[in-house]
Amino acid sequence: MNDVASLQKSHSDVASGRAPARPDPTLEVAPGLACLRLPIVNLYFCGQPGAGDRSWALIDAGLPFSDGRILDAASRRFGPESRPAAIILTHGHFDHVGALPRLMSHWDVPVYAHELERPYLSGRSSYPPPDPAVGGGAMAFLSRFYPRGPIDLGDRLQTLPPDGSVPGMPGWRWLHTPGHTPGHVSLFRDSDRVLIAGDAFVATKQESMLGALLQWDPRVRRPPAYYTSDWEAARRSVEMLAGLQPEVAATGHGVPMRGEGMRRELETLAGHWEEDAVPSWGRYVDRPAVTDVRGVVRVPPPVVDPQLLALVGLGGFALGLWWLRTPRSRSR
């Protein structure tokens, strides 16, 4: 429909007392796959438009208090009161599970995650502490304040099938892609090489507040550094995903990408990991967090945060300057 026809339809709707139809908030990424972009994070709907009740799946669950937008988008894409067959989690960080409690209650739906992600979703263990010392911007600096769980999904939490199949997503398979978190998974559809990468790699500079919000300069980048607790495992995961030669890369952060240019960037990231991905300084740069099926076993000690040190120094300088310039009464 062109702009003129759309405007005429809107006037007709108003004249007839009908509210004009709201635009679909999702972005079609590939056949049967749509992206809902929320502030700083993406989630995905898998299923054909109008598929109906229990005939589609939700991948990740966004930020806290985003359930209204997710429910509205699902209703418009699949039909009023349409519920998913499953919710699939790439991982359990707060920006990927924020709306889960309300969505689970509303839809009465199972939630699937990797076995090594279960401790952080069953109330057993918090994630390793974030690493604000990696630098790169305000998102990294503020990561010291981000929630790191655990949350408890109760008996709705299920383990992904060991055969690699994905509940509610026929034709897809899950791949264990650890590094960003111990049980991180990515999803792949072999028929058209569509990849849902989660945060194994992203398409914006997520350490920067402006990069996270505006998503400018879209290109393949490392996983969000402040939350990545095993850089060697993350490298192997990126190498595996690059080997799939995906046609589409739908990431947890940044604009979904496609084509030969995306594949070259992904291969470059994998091939130049030490130079382009691993931070020059950080808590987990030399030693990873150690985890198992029970959660965190041990983490390396924190390191000095250069950004925090600079901020404290600047604050001290400003306080000293203020003290020197403040008039004081003379003693009599």
Structure overview:
The chain is α/β, with parallel strands linked by helices and 332 residues long. The protein has a single domain (20-325), classed as Ribonuclease Z/Hydroxyacylglutathione hydrolase-like (Metallo-beta-lactamase, Chain A, 4-Layer Sandwich), CATH 3.60.15.10. Helices cover 30% and strands 17% of the residues. It is globular and about 70 Å long. The N and C termini lie far apart (85 Å).
Features of the shown structure:
single chain; 332 residues; alpha/beta; Metallo-beta-lactamase, Chain A; 7-stranded mixed beta sheet; 5-stranded mixed beta sheet; 10 helices; 14 strands; disordered N terminus
Structural topology:
Elements: H1 3-15, E1 27-30, E2 33-38, E3 41-46, E4 57-59, H2 67-78, E5 86-88, H3 94-97, H4 100-107, E6 111-113, H5 138-142, E7 157-159, E8 172-176, E9 185-189, E10 194-198, H6 209-214, H7 231-243, E11 248-251, E12 257-258, H8 259-271, H9 273-276, E13 290-292, E14 295-298, H10 306-325
Parallel strand pairs: 4-5, 5-6, 6-7, 10-11
Antiparallel strand pairs: 1-2, 2-3, 3-4, 8-9, 9-10, 11-12, 13-14
Helix pairs in contact: 7-8
- Assign the CATH superfamily: Ribonuclease Z/Hydroxyacylglutathione hydrolase-like
User: Helicity range of the residues?
Assistant: 25-40%
Task: Quote the distance from N terminus to C terminus.
Answer: 85 Å
Category by helix and strand content = alpha/beta
